[in-house]
Amino acid sequence: MPEVKTATKAEVAYELVRDQLLRGDLVPGSVIQQAALARDLGISTTPLREALRRLMTEGLVELDAHRDARVTRLTAEEARDLVEIRRSLDPLAAGLAAERRTRQDLDRIRETADKLLPLRADPESSELATHRQFHIAIYTASHNQLLVQSLDGLWDKADRYRRLALEDGRTEEDLDRTHAEHLAMVDAIAAGDSGTAAAVMLAHVDASLGARAVARLTSAAAQPVARSLRGIRGART
Questions:
Q1: How many domains does the chain have?
Q2: What start-end ranges are recorded for coiled-coil regions in this protein (predicted)?
Q3: Do 102 and 187 belong together in one domain?
């Protein structure tokens, strides 16, 4: 029988803390009280520090020279960067999927599409996971491993911005449009229509929660500047 590998304490700590980060339980920009967090998770601080170092390499946590830890802030710049990358890579993956998908790929895409749940305010991790599984099924059907790895590596960061955008709520029109885009992608990939698959995916990214997060954070960043300018004008009058 093959040997069953047991997860190390650091690996367990990594999964537990990562889950809290992606759920928003650890608030962006907040200081991580390591001793208290270790107690809450039922682990010691040593595997927790190892987990935090790993999360730092993924851009989810910041560590300073004194080993103080802070949850990485959400910024308009990072949100924009994520959308810009996805505007190029997601349509590429969808177009290649239409050209290269196998019967097994198509079965997986349809299976994950059937499980999609509409994302509303404060979604469960399982609800976000269904959308990841659907997109991963499309990425995998591209049969370009570097592309799959690149897009999968963006997902955790992007989920934090999706949660931010969902705080504003979504209209039924938003949900209907997203559902229609998912169905159109499945149909285009099944038909082998790479041009339509890529175009639908591009429209999907442009109207995505990530794009809404960019708008929200950009607006929030501009407000202090506007207030400052109003103050300067007021001082001159």
A1: 2
A2: none
A3: yes
Token pair 């802030």 is found at: 73
Residue 64 region by backbone torsions, left for phi larger than 0, else alpha for psi between -120 and 50, else beta: beta
Q: What is the DSSP letter of 146?
A: H
Q: Which residue has the tokens 């390591």?
A: 34
Residue range of the domain that includes 24:
9-71
147 and 37, same structural domain?
no
pTM equals 0.83
What CATH number is attached to the domain comprising 50? 1.10.10.10
Looking up tokens 């799959």, which residue turns up?
148
Could you tell me which residues come within 8 angstroms of residue 190 by beta carbon, excluding any fewer than 6 positions away?
Answer: 101, 106, 109, 110
- pLDDT, tens digit (0-9, with 9 covering 90-100), for 24-73: 889 999 999 999 999 998 888 999 999 999 999 988 999 887 778 999 99
Alpha-carbon gap, residue 72 to 69, rounded angstroms: 9
DSSP state of 172: H
